[in-house]
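Re: Re: ligand-bound prediction request (bumping)

Still looking for help on this. To restate: I need the protein modeled with nicotinamide-adenine-dinucleotide bound, output as structure tokens. Inputs repeated here so nobody has to scroll up.
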Amino acid sequence: MRVLITGGAGFIGANLCAFLTGFPGVRGVVALDDLSTGSADNLDGTSAELVTGSILDRPLLDRLVAAADTVVHLAARPSVPRSLADPVASHEVNATGTVNVLEACRRTGAHLILASSSSVYGDTEVTPKHEDLATRPLSPYGAGKLAAEAYALAYGSSFGLPVLPLRFFNVYGPLQAAGHAYAAVIPAFVDAALCGEPVTVHGDGEQTRDFTYVGTVVRLLADAVLRRVTSPAPVNLAFGTRVTVNQLITMIGEILGAAPAVRHVPARHGDVRHSQAACDRLGLLFPNVDPVPLGDGLKHTVAWF
Ligand code: NAD
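Reply:
Sorry for the wait, this slipped through. Here it is.
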């Protein structure tokens, strides 16, 4: 089994490279990454081959996909605020880049696993969010992810391509970058708390999120690669836990032994209020998955910082 991971030098991609290299049944792992948010350092200690380049380079994609049995497509501009700042760039990478990857897969029939996002649901009051709910993205990022998964499913039905579109919710853990304007909530909070600075909460902190530890995500992705799991419909990748941002801060404070100071700023446009996955479809495809509990995952994450 040879695996190409687009976005392989990013947070989830590099964790997956580390998990897959040396895994029984995996003969080679190639990471394609333009290093726009990822870093070559993330691959230190793995035997994955890094190819520095873009999913917008179609000849390069054709060459790399031709040498792969499965493509895990993670490359993206993965941020709601960045998509609001530059919707066209977001569309180019997240939507057009995905069509490029699908075209390359169509030539060889490679199995494609795609990272979509819970942001496709938008701000619905319905929780948990089942995959058959109407999708109403609130941001260009969410719209691009919806387009990406729609294209993947269309390539499945039109060309018989074996695809698995997964809607990731909030993934966290080691290698997730902190200290920049678009940092995700857990690394931003842990980084601030360790520096003795207040954590910044957008809104009242009663918004909820469904967090999944990256170790759980990469084990599930590896299982999907090895069993060539496909689905004719999108599948939520989260486990239905619902935690408020305020509860998260309390948990981080307990691990660090001191409650972080909190600074409230206005809620961000494009952010959804509540996020919690229905996970019955995931359970049917991956009956043996055993997610790392949030408290344990937070301890591993704090230890990594
Ligand atoms: P990340 O930013 O760490 O990884 C994305 C990687 O893609 C980076 O290494 C970046 O350099 C690379 N990249 C960007 N544009 C590229 C291009 N044109 N060509 C090649 N590489 C390019 O983000 P992540 O958190 O690891 O996210 C991985 C995937 O999961 C993304 O598709 C993201 O939208 C999706 N996702 C993540 C989360 C989460 O909570 N982390 C939630 C929902 C969906």
